[in-house]
Amino acid sequence: MNERLWQILVDSFPKLLEYGVKVTLPLTVLSFALALAVALLVALIQYARVKGIRQLCRFYIWVTRGTPLLVQLYIVFYGLPSVGIVLDAFPAAVVVLGLNEAAYMAETIRGTLESVSKGQLEAGYCVGMTWPKIMWHVVLPQAMRTAFPALSNSMIAMLKETSMAATITVMEMFRQAQVINGRVYESLGLYVEAALIYLIFCTILTWIQRRGEKRLAAYGGGARA
């Protein structure tokens, strides 16, 4: 590695890390929070088999999973202004990333909801609990514990997908790498450096995921005991 490239990488690392912490991570957290809220709602509607709305949820999942994320970003940020709906780049990225991932997470949550024994619903009714209380106190805790690994993986995937927000001018970490590269023309070094920072972030999230899984396993074991 020549001295010029080394100096560029040393100078660019704190800038990339800053945008990773200030933009990429908040974008991930906000998008995941939206995704989780929408996924829970969609999964519960399907689980309860609410007529009419259930079909709308299936349509939403079908369209979202059947179209590329990049196309969805372009439709919302570049396409909607033509019909009078204008979103800034960051909110547009949050909405698209959140709704895109929610379609996948909804199917995960629906599957875990359906894995909970129906006998527990019947037992809840027998002791006078309403459907919402049974879901909140009995079914959802078990389902979400089972879904935790898959949902954690979704968050890690979303962290990497935030790099696509650069295509709609969100100044996140990858976009900052592109800007720096436009001045110094060291594509390989800068993009590898950005990839390493993504790897660091994903490694931290993976460690948190494993810690969470161990805690949930211990909790589940204690409950069965």
The overall number of domains is 1
- Could you state the oligomeric state of the chains shown? single chain
Global outline: flat
**Beta-strand content:** under 5%
CATH superfamily: MetI-like
Helix content: over 70%
CATH fold annotation: MetI-like fold
Q: Give the CA-CA distance, first to last residue.
A: 58 Å
Average pLDDT metric: 93
Using DSSP, what is the number of strands? 0
Secondary structure class reads mainly alpha
Radius of gyration, whole Å: 21 Å
Poorly predicted runs: none
Helix and strand topology:
Elements: H1 3-48, H2 53-65, H3 69-79, H4 89-115, H5 118-126, H6 131-161, H7 173-184, H8 187-224
Helix pairs in contact: 1-4, 1-6, 1-7, 1-8, 2-4, 3-4, 4-6, 5-6, 6-8, 7-8
